[in-house]
Amino acid sequence: MPHIDELVLDPPFNVTRAGHVVLDVRDLNASRHFYTELVGLVVSDEDDSAVYLRGLEERGHHSLVLRESSEATCACLGMRVRNEDDIFKAQDYFAAQGRTATLVEVPYQGLTLRVRDDAGVPLEFCASMEPRERMLKQYQHYRGASAQRLDHYQLQVSDIRQAWRFYQALGFRVSEYTYSTIGDRQHLWGVWLQRKGNPHDIVFTQGPGPRLHHFAYTLPDSNDMIRACDVAGALGYAPCLERGPGRHGISGALFTYFRDPDGHRIELFNTHYQHIDLEPALGWDLADPKRADQWGLPAQKKWFTEATPFTDVALTEPDIRVDPPTLERFLALANDG
Prior knowledge:
The chain is about 20% helix and about 35% strand. The chain has six helices and 18 strands. A hairpin with a 7-residue loop joins strand 11 and strand 12.
């Protein structure tokens, strides 16, 4: 079993970062309105069945694709690789493992490799996208939260070590991790993995899975986070504000979480630190109240129990049940005291 700090410095192909997410939504117009008017994403292209969106900082054609569907699921998560050669290297690597890895042409992103990870998560690896104008300095087009770029995903899976081993072999490094103490042993409850030099591109926490817990976009500064909350109230999205504003212990980011019209969860945040040097991962006890929020209050129970399923992927329950520190438990203990 690899150690949490074991590194693969010469991976079989070069993943550079989290790239894009494809969501199935029931009402395309309602979702488009949420992501443009509240989140502040820019429409790159659209038709009757799909909307392609990007952040204001992004040059690539899309980081979020909304597809109209009868079910609200996540179709896939995308990872960018350095160049097209890495796509073929990835195909060879997965084929040698006996996995089904399919090369396809995808609109606006060209040659793409589709494969599933050990947890069953559908992945797309692509090297480039059609370029669009970077709107970073087009301040007249900033609206809502003014989301800048896609940064990371967080998933729930039944087996943390299985998920971690898959990505560790691809050169992902653990920046931080969470454990729970069961008897005299430490049980790994979550891992924060990165390729691009900040704390995470993909996160795994324990739960029925695989499911997409959330995807995250960066904001210019904390004022945009408050503006997002104000805009949510003005547009009738106040009930969609699920958590925050707050500050994470892990990563130190200021955060706010919203649920879109289908219940897909998005994080809007700023304030990352660099994780470029080869340094040991930082461990957190799940029971530490400052792990999730430096300001004290834990998340509601639904934060741990609700997430987006992947399209046509069955759920698996964890072998070991861990009861996370919820807001409901916190308040019950406070009342008992």
